[in-house]
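Marked as duplicate of an earlier ticket. Keeping the data here for the record.
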Amino acid sequence: MRGIFRSTDAGASWTRIDDDAHQWGWTGASITGDPRVHGRVYVATNGRGILRGDTS
């Protein structure tokens, strides 16, 4: 299955954070975590902007 997933339990379970109707473009290797904010990630969307996600 293709998509972008997150885990809040060290990889024991995963939740998909996009869906087939709302793809964010090709992400490639452009996903990174914020070293200053626990649980925050940034996803580059290949020309559609940068998305920020938080666990809460």
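See parent ticket for discussion. Residues 25-50 form one domain.
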